[in-house]
Amino acid sequence: MTDVLISGASVAGPALAWFLRREGIRVTVVERAPELRDSGYAVDFRGAALDVLAEIGILDEVRTHETRMRGTTVLAPDGSVVAELPAATFAGDLEVPKRALTGVLHRAVDADVVFDDTITALEQHDDRVTVSFERAPTRDFDLVFGADGVHSVVRRLAFPGVAPIEHLGMSGAGFTTGNVFGLDHRGLLQTAPGRAIYAFAAGDPDRMTVSLSFATTSSELDRAGRAAQEAAVRAAFADHPWPETPGLLAAMTEASDFYFASTCQVHLDSWSTGRVALLGDAGYCAAPTSGMGTSQALIAASTLARCLTEAAGDHRAAFERYEKELRPYVTENQRIGREAVAAFGG
């Protein structure tokens, strides 16, 4: 194995690229976005994920971006205080803005990263995979890895006819806006059956991040345009009783970093086929509500790379061991994700 392709440049992809480059393997990372994404919520790390960051050599730099949240205030619909939640409820052992993590990871990775392109076809052979791209010329690779999220292109091409996405009944929009609540490393949370509003400020005292979550019956909105997504959010919160809600909806429309995603899980009987394997959300998303997505992506990258190295070129044995080791961990994270949605009335 000397030349591999990774689809997806968020967390799992660059992490895997780093470990493979350490072994002297040529790595190409392809990302359909035109540049590193500057949106998304804060992400947190728990347990062994911190060891992965340390092994890559970026733990100290990642820590400089820590949100240092102090806790979250739970509000009733009228805005009165119901409870206080400790920082660890959302932040895990370490929490940073996702854009900060991806920036640090990309600076650490010595790989060929191609933005604004995507895979359009995969043709597997005994000794290689022939990959067609939307823009770049067709190329052969020894192995192909899909780290391209819940709606993975690699998964769709490598596992035709498989529909592994389980929608858990919740979708949400995220964006940043002015810190109108004067939050200082703290959050505000308001939940009701089928709806939740969460706002927090960390780092920039003049900005806060807002998420508006609501009950949905499918993840179809993920692939809709922003106008349709905003319309769905407005409809869901049209009669919300909190006096601050209309202002948040107005800020959503003005936001330049609007982000929308559904709470889903991915379930597959196998995470590989031939010379193609999946990792992170593409193979086994545990849902954002698990709080384990980023940790799972990092641990998966480390585990997969180690299994490939120990298998000494036998990718089938490596993929089998990777799945055997990681599946119990993934299964537990998916359980946590489902229970969290139920707790929030999704």
From TrEMBL:
<dbReference type="InterPro" id="IPR051704">
    <property type="entry name" value="FAD_aromatic-hydroxylase"/>
</dbReference>
<feature type="domain" description="FAD-binding">
    <location>
        <begin position="2"/>
        <end position="331"/>
    </location>
</feature>
<dbReference type="InterPro" id="IPR002938">
    <property type="entry name" value="FAD-bd"/>
</dbReference>
<dbReference type="Pfam" id="PF01494">
    <property type="entry name" value="FAD_binding_3"/>
</dbReference>
<dbReference type="InterPro" id="IPR036188">
    <property type="entry name" value="FAD/NAD-bd_sf"/>
</dbReference>
<protein>
    <submittedName>
        <fullName>FAD-dependent oxidoreductase</fullName>
    </submittedName>
</protein>
